[in-house]
Amino acid sequence: MSAGVNRQRIQALVAAERESYIARHPESARLAAEAGQHLLFGVPMHWMNDWSTPFPLTVREASGARFRDADGHEYVDFCLGDTGAMFGHAPQPVAQAIARQATRGYTAMLPSEDAGPVAAELARRFGLPCWQFALSASDANRFVLRWLRAATGRSKVLVFNGCYHGTVDDVFVDLVDCVPTQRDSLLGQVHTLTDHTVVVEFNDLPALEAALQQGDIACVLAEPVMTNIGMVLPQPGYWEASQQLIKHYGALLVIDETHTISSGPGGYARAHGMMPDALVIGKPIGGGIPCAAYGFTEELARRVEHAKRSAPPGHSGIGTTLSANMFAMAAMRANLEQVMTEQAYRQMFALAAQLAQGLRDVIARHGLPWCVTQIGARTEFQFTVQPPRNGAEAHDVMDAELEQAIHLYLLNRGLLITPFHNMLLVCPDTTGDDVARLLSAFDGFLADTIQKQIC
How far is CA 260 from the centre of its chain? Predict the structure, then answer.
């Protein structure tokens, strides 16, 4: 439990906020009840129930940094589809591109005229020359693991405790009392994941080296900054040393930039001089249209091609018929060339810095032992004085009751943040007034819930 907050006040506040939400959203309530007749769990995807609301909020339209619900209420969106709309909802160049493509065909299982330019732009941004496409980062990560296992002849993948790489089964392994353990939350898995997945703590070089020394690790799959369990930054020099170890022991490094593309046009790895063997980027690059891409170094691409050409004929198990469809490629090209610009990033960085400093000021004013971390356009506050150094530390300071209370309080004041933790994104359409409004509401929540000192 987080220090400095009054649990009784939080529980009373949540009860009042739930009543307020119900009263203000009769149309969302009606739509939720209607949908519940035919949608499993009452929603199109069961994660949509993971918000703090009594029933799902139904969105009617979204544009830029705002969306409107079915009851007509407008919200400033600091969640932005948990990164899928990182550059704003329905960016105009993407909207125009998909409108043009809508009359020219959606998919043909053949290259479109946009495919080459998109791959060239990805190569320019990320410094990796050879690319392939998928429909989601989950698929892209899954495909990369297959390619790299085939290319190296090694079966194991190494991930970090508390990591997130989509719905790839291989990564659902955590450290529990220092023992690699398959997550209980993974439904329907009949194979023992720990046979082929190794897990260590982030920022622990000795543990990483001990695992790599076994000589059976095909690749290390990592976000350069952990983002799913609350943000965990690499310690100074960690990635420099890690890359040397990975190379020394014959493994490969795969960097997942799906979230950390918030760090700049070429992601965190390019901004910080990292040299991964492969890179995955998902939902943000198409402006919210389902798509993803993965890239290889020249040397790895040749190994991958050799593995494919040396294999028996038949389906590789990699790729789908809708991968690189014309609709997605048009959206990616427009988003990469006209939306994810240097200027857009500069604007986002400035606003995120304003937001991060504002959060620190509010937290300090209320005397709370919390910290704030910023990675480009992405900001997060955590319930601990010092930023966590690994997944275990990040997990230990999470407080579901407090998080849900903050999220609901802000939502009822027209402000949306990510439901799974305390992450906030700004996009090119976010304004300084939007940030000030968020900070004022956050200050109001703390004023209502912090533990009053008794003299």
Answer: 8
pLDDT exceeds 60 at position 66: yes
Give the pair of three-digit tokens for residue 415: 């402000």
H-state helical runs in 235-297: 238-248, 267-271
Q: How far apart are CA 331 and CA 92, in angstroms?
A: 11
Residues 193/151, Cβ–Cβ less than 8 Å: no
Residue 254 and residue 101 in contact, taking contact as beta carbons nearer than 8 Å? no
Instruction: Answer for the pair 89, 430: CB distance below 8 angstroms, yes or no.
Output: no
Per-residue pLDDT reduced to its tens digit, 364-415: 999 999 999 999 999 999 999 999 999 999 999 999 999 999 999 999 999 9
Round to whole Å and give the CA distance between 139 and 151: 18
Together in a domain, 412 and 445: yes
Among candidate residues 184, 178, 185, 215, the one with its CA nearest the CA of residue 200: 178
Residues 347 and 335 in one domain: no
- Coil, strand or helix: which one is 91? coil
What is the average pLDDT value for the chain, to the nearest integer? 95
Report if residue 445 sits inside a domain: yes
Domain that holds residue 233: 92-339
| Half-sphere CA count of 240, side-chain side, radius 13 A | 5
Identify the band that residue 173 occupies on the pLDDT scale cut at 50, 70 and 90: very high
CB atoms within 10 A of CB 24: 14
| CA distance between the termini of the chain | 23
Q: Are 444 and 50 in contact (CB under 8 A)?
A: no
- Both tokens of 118, joined, read 């998109």
Asked if residue 122 and residue 111 are part of one domain, the reply reads yes
Domain count, the chain: 2
The dihedral built from the CA positions of residue 390, 396, 402 and 404, taken in this order, carries a sign that is: positive
DSSP line for 166-232: TB-GGG-EEEETTEEEE-TT-TT--S-GGGTEEEE-TT-HHHHHHHHTTS-EEEEEE-SSB-BTB-B
pLDDT of 222 higher than 60: yes
Domain boundary residue among 307, 339, 371? 339
User: Residues 4, 35: contact at Cβ < 8 Å?
Assistant: no
